[in-house]
């Protein structure tokens, strides 16, 4: 089964969970006064559930349109040759983003941003550290200044124990 | 009206107010370029500065300059990085980014600058002419019509964004609407679909979702397939010669600009519609009326596809000032913040604004012309330098794009959990793109979801049920139109498939 149909199947499953919450769990908590209303908080989600399941089934069971033919477009990812792409680098960057989210507060903005920019470039194959590190430090410092001092949005620059 | 223009000119053309126009445009453009910071957040940040000025005319001139600048700056990041920080410039990236990848970043930015200028200026002229009359038309729209209008907008977006895959686009629209219902609803203030998580109490943030749908998958695709970056950007896009547009190109986009200035302005006037719907509808309409090869070109770097949303969103920005200035009703989130700023400055927008403080009303309109002119003068010479962003090596550029994506989402909420949500949605969006699902309908469904539900609920309460569909002919007409928009392309696709099958069988 093609990936788009797997996604349609997952979407129908999501609609079922969403619909279960809308049909069976939400109305119980409704205060009696609101029950006299023609529209309840669950009304719109119920409509969405029904429409979602119908549209999901249409995508799942409609015959796929014949491909345009010809060579694959330039720069487009061809799923059948996924192994040929730098999937490892992409996964590495995703892990790095999660690590950034988790270290932003404990390490402080400047430290975690410099680490993120340097490690991100290293994952992509950059080895010119004499350019990379100053660029990362200047960028992190100037963005912190712009956000904190000019725009007035609080960003803790250093780890909590130094502040 | 002549008297009004003269009052406006004398109030706006003072050295201090001119400085405010220039300052507003520069600040708006620079900050608007950062993905994640849209006009709403920039205006919110600038409010203390504006109140500090004290003079309501100068303050409003500064804030409207920031507004225009931010919309223009947002289109720059849409074109160069495919990272629209503002919902109104999402449609700009459909053709602007493919143009940048083809090495025409300079030309794309020039077209965006000219289209924005034309849209904004024509919008300002229309505002001057129609402001009083339009306010009475907008008043005719009830919540039932707003609901139907939004359904039409969503159907049009699904019908045209799907390029023959209407069901897939509809599925994405519905997913967007479902994501929009997460959090506290306006109906009863009870949390819905939060699964007990406090972080979901206020729902998903629009900026996080926008970043996850557009910037993150694009960056990941660039990482996975370096040919994607090499096929477009690089040295060629940095060339200054790339920014010239030919006479033939100018002739082909002129009617688009004319049509979309009008359409965008009138959509902008309707409260709740605003720049986002205007830009998507503008794109959809132009795509639908384009013929043959030109229609094929949409989504792959069509200059018409770039000019249409750019003109429409700027014209709609001007249009959204009509309900604010004449009725005191903000038409969009941004004008709502402007309304707050005006009230803080002791100016009450509404029907009496034109008679009580005509200098404020007219000075703002005159400053719109000036602002658009300043934006054009400011941006055209800077385009070659802005386009240089694409010549930065990808080992430096990609971590920076990812970093701006993370920052955009973090600054909106000041919450690190938002970053984890961003990564999660980014992975889902990348998988959806692998399977060729259009992502724009998802985002627009999410943005319109809350407004759609509120208007639906209001109409249901007023008519004690679904009777509003039958009792209001305009609502019924709009809903039938929405149905046709979805059914017709599907039927055409079905016929084409049958015909192709017939030919294949004949062989």
Automatic annotation (TrEMBL), chain A:
Limits of the DUF1468 domain: 6-155
Keywords, in A-Z order: Membrane, Transmembrane, Transmembrane helix
InterPro entries named in the record: DUF1468 (IPR009936)
One Pfam family named in its UniProt record: TctB
Membrane-spanning segments: 45-62, 82-101, 107-124, 131-155
Keyword Membrane on entry: yes
Keyword flag Membrane: yes
Protein name: DUF1468 domain-containing protein
Organism expressing this protein natively: Marivita lacus
UniProtKB/TrEMBL annotation, chain B:
Keywords carried by this UniProt record: Membrane, Transmembrane, Transmembrane helix
Domain DUF112, chain residue ranges per copy: 18-443
Upper taxonomic lineage: Bacteria, Pseudomonadati, Pseudomonadota, Alphaproteobacteria, Rhodobacterales
Top-level lineage group: Bacteria
Organism of this sequence: Marivita lacus
PANTHER family linked: TRICARBOXYLIC TRANSPORT PROTEIN
Name of the protein: Tripartite tricarboxylate transporter TctA
InterPro entries in UniProt: DUF112_TM
Transmembrane segment boundaries: 6-31, 43-67, 79-97, 109-134, 146-162, 169-188, 200-223, 265-285, 329-348, 360-386, 392-412, 419-452, 472-491
Pfam family name, one: TctA
């Amino acid at each position: 089964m093609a990936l788009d149909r797997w996604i349609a199947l997952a979407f129908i499953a999501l609609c079922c969970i969403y619909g279960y919450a809308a049909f069976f769990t939400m109305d119980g908590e409704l205060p009696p006064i609101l029950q006299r209303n023609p529209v309840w908080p669950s009304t719109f989600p119920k409509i969405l559930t029904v429409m979602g399941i119908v549209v999901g089934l249409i995508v799942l069971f409609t015959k796929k349109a014949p491909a345009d033919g010809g060579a694959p477009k330039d720069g487009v990812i061809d799923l059948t040759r996924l192994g040929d792409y730098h999937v490892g680098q992409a996964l590495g960057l995703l892990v790095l983003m999660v690590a950034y989210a988790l270290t932003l507060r404990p390490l402080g903005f400047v430290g975690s941003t410099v680490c993120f920019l340097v490690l991100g470039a290293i994952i992509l194959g950059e080895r010119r550290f004499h350019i990379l590190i100053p660029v990362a430090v200047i960028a992190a410092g100037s963005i912190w200044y712009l956000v904190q001092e000019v725009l007035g949005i609080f960003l803790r620059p250093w780890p909590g124990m130094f502040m | 009206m002549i008297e009004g223009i003269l009052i406006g000119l004398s109030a706006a053309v003072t050295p201090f107010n001119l400085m405010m126009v220039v300052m507003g445009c520069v600040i708006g453009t620079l900050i608007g370029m950062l993905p994640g910071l849209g006009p709403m957040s920039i205006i919110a940040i600038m409010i203390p500065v504006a109140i500090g000025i004290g003079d309501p005319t100068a303050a409003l001139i500064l804030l409207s300059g920031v507004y225009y600048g931010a919309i223009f700056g947002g289109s720059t990041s849409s074109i160069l990085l495919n990272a629209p920080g503002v919902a109104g410039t999402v449609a700009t990236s459909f053709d602007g980014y493919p143009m940048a990848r083809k090495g025409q970043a300079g030309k794309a930015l020039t077209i965006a600058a000219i289209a924005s200028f034309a849209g904004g200026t024509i919008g300002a002229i229309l505002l001057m002419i129609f402001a009083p009359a339009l306010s009475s038309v907008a008043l005719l729209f009830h919540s039932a019509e707003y609901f139907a209008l939004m359904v039409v907008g969503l159907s049009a977006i699904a019908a045209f964004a799907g390029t023959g895959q209407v069901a897939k686009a509809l599925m994405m629209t519905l997913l967007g609407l479902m994501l929009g219902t997460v959090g506290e609803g306006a109906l009863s203030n009870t949390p819905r679909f939060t699964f007990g998580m406090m972080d979901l109490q206020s729902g998903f943030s629009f900026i996080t979702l926008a970043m996850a749908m557009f910037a993150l998958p694009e960056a990941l695709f660039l990482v996975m397939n370096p040919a994607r970056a090499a096929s477009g950007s690089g040295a060629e896009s940095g060339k200054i010669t790339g920014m010239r547009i030919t006479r033939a190109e100018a002739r082909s986009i002129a009617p688009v600009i004319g049509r979309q200035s009008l359409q965008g302005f009138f959509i902008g006037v309707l409260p709740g519609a605003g720049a986002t719907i205007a830009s998507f509808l503008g794109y959809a309409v132009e795509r639908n009326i384009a013929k043959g090869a030109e229609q094929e070109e949409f989504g792959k770097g069509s200059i018409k596809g770039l000019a249409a949303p750019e003109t429409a969103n700027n014209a709609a920005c001007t249009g959204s000032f009509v309900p604010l200035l004449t009725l005191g009703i903000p038409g969009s989130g941004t004008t709502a913040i402007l309304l707050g700023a005006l009230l803080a400055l002791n100016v009450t927008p509404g029907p009496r604004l034109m008679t009580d403080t005509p200098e404020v009303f007219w000075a703002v309109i005159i400053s719109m012309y000036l602002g658009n002119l300043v934006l054009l003068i400011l941006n055209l010479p800077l385009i070659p330098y802005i386009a240089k962003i694409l010549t930065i090596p990808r080992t430096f550029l990609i971590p920076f794009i990812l970093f701006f994506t993370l920052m955009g989402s973090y600054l909106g909420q000041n919450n690190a959990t938002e970053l984890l949500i961003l990564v999660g949605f980014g992975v889902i969006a990348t998988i959806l793109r692998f399977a060729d699902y259009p992502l724009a309908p998802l985002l627009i469904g999410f943005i319109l979801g809350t407004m759609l539900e509120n208007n639906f609920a209001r109409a249901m309460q007023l008519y004690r049920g679904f009777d509003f569909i039958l009792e209001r002919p305009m609502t019924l007409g709009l809903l039938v139109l929405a149905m046709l928009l979805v059914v017709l392309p599907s039927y055409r696709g079905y016929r084409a498939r049958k015909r192709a099958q017939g030919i294949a069988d004949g062989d």
